[in-house]
Here is the input.
Amino acid sequence: MKQKIGLVAGVTLILAWCLLPVVWIVSLSMKDAAAVTNGSPGFWPGDAFAGFDNYVTVLTEDSYSQFRRAIVNSIGISLIATTLSVILATLAAYAIARLEFKGKKLVLTTALAIAMFPVVSLVSPLFDMWRAIGLYDTWAGLIIPYMSFTLPLAIWTLSAFFREIPWEMEQAAQVDGATSWQAFRRVIVPLAAPGVFTAAILTFFFAWNDFVFGITLTSTETARPIPASLSFFVGADPFNRPASLLSAAAVIATIPIVLIVLLFQRKIVSGLTSGAVKG
Amino acid sequence: MSAVATAPGGTSAKKQQKNGRNELSDRLKAENSLGQRLVAPAVAIMLLVTAFPILRALYLSFYNYSLTSPDDREFIGISNYVTALSDGLFWRDIAMTVLYMVVTVAIELVIGFAFALVMHRIVFARGVIRTSILIPYGIITVVSGFAWQFAFTSSNGFVNGWLPFIDDGFNWFGDTTPAVIAIMVSEIWKTTPFMSLLLLAGLAQVSEDMIEAAKVDGAGWWQRLFRVVLPNMQAAIMVAVLFRALDAYRIFDNIFVMTSGAVGTESISFLVYRQTIEQFQLGMGSALSVLLFLSVLLVAFIIVKLFRVDLARARGE
Here is the structure.
């Protein structure tokens, strides 16, 4: 009984930890913008409640068109980077899990080293290189570094996953009369798909979250993604960030993450832990 | 390193094998080259944006190279390094970064472990807990930084009102210590879930029989925790610490959003950014990049040596 009370308390604590700041930013996004400029302390909006006014402002007013453009950039860049990264990682992970070849250890070590690479140390040389070859401030200029930094995680997750697939089933299907394409499509693809999907989610999170490349390798709204765009938010008073409008934009940027988490939490947890702990 | 990706180099020895084994060695050779061709694109992309630029940074670091006067680029040897290493600011930022790393990882380890213990034992609401714990993990760091910055401000936040021993008008971002605390809170909030999930996976590997046996032998809860559970999940703890520590060492987003490096909160990553992007000092920025890269290697080396992390496990090998 005593243990049960402890667990309930623990669960409550975890939920409060995880959700309090989220509730807070939603609450702040519903405070009236003018009231916030004058100062309106407190967790709940109270008298300053403005409903969805700030969302309407951010999504319709001309001065926030750079944010709306950033949404398009972020979605486009993240999806392209995710797709390309997962394709390359699937090829590599298949080779690592199924084939014997020279340099396999080296590939895994390289991936591990890159996962720990200090991203900011690339800012100077990439800034210089991208300007020289015309990739600065373009979608491709962000997609390439996103791919490099998501490949390690995708390769680990996928190779751990592919190792668990019963590949003999492919031959069994062929013995039963399936062509090799049928065997691959009907047997292997359904088994591998969940792993590929998990890798895709983790890759998408990275690309969506990135700030270092987003702020250093872009200069205009042509390619600037959401996190960088948020840091450029200015309101009526240039020295005072428009907290409630910014919060509304931040909530909009968080919606895709919440949706993905709600739909796929089980897959994400297994993907996050598979690379780190054998199990 | 890119040699791995290109041609199968060392297979010529196999050609000299006897006729009878030719078929087998051909198959091995084919497998070898297929494997290498499959990993080649991924390896090429990974190195294109890491190994090549860091070598380029090494080259640029020997020049006095400023974007404001690109034509005056001149070779100055190790002057940039001498300037950086003899400047108190560099060492101050390194110390600050180490402080961020040590404090946040230590706190995350304790809280993350407590969370993992709860999640390991519960039989109800598992889905709800997992979903909510993934929200801080998935949320954009910049958003977390803003949420906490606004929470700490006296004009629109709630922290001053909730903490009884803090004056309502207290400015958290006016002095180093409170500003660093605010930054750490945001960092810890966002990354503890990741830590707790890794630790949860480690906990799941500790055999229940062993814990039961200790219980039968009369070991109390704390004894079981420190003598049975923790030693048996050492590998998982070390991997979690290594990953998080190197991640925390790169701290940038929260500092950028919450203080812009003001009041002495700057980290080494932020210094590199400032030199390159704000001051256009590409030569000095490159030298600092190289130093940052070397310092990460050093930190990784120290952690691996100190805790004897088994890297093979980290790769799932």
Q: What stands out?
A: Chain B has 16 helices and two strands. Residues 88-121 of chain B form the longest helix (34 residues). Confidence is low (pLDDT under 50) at residues 1-18 of chain B.
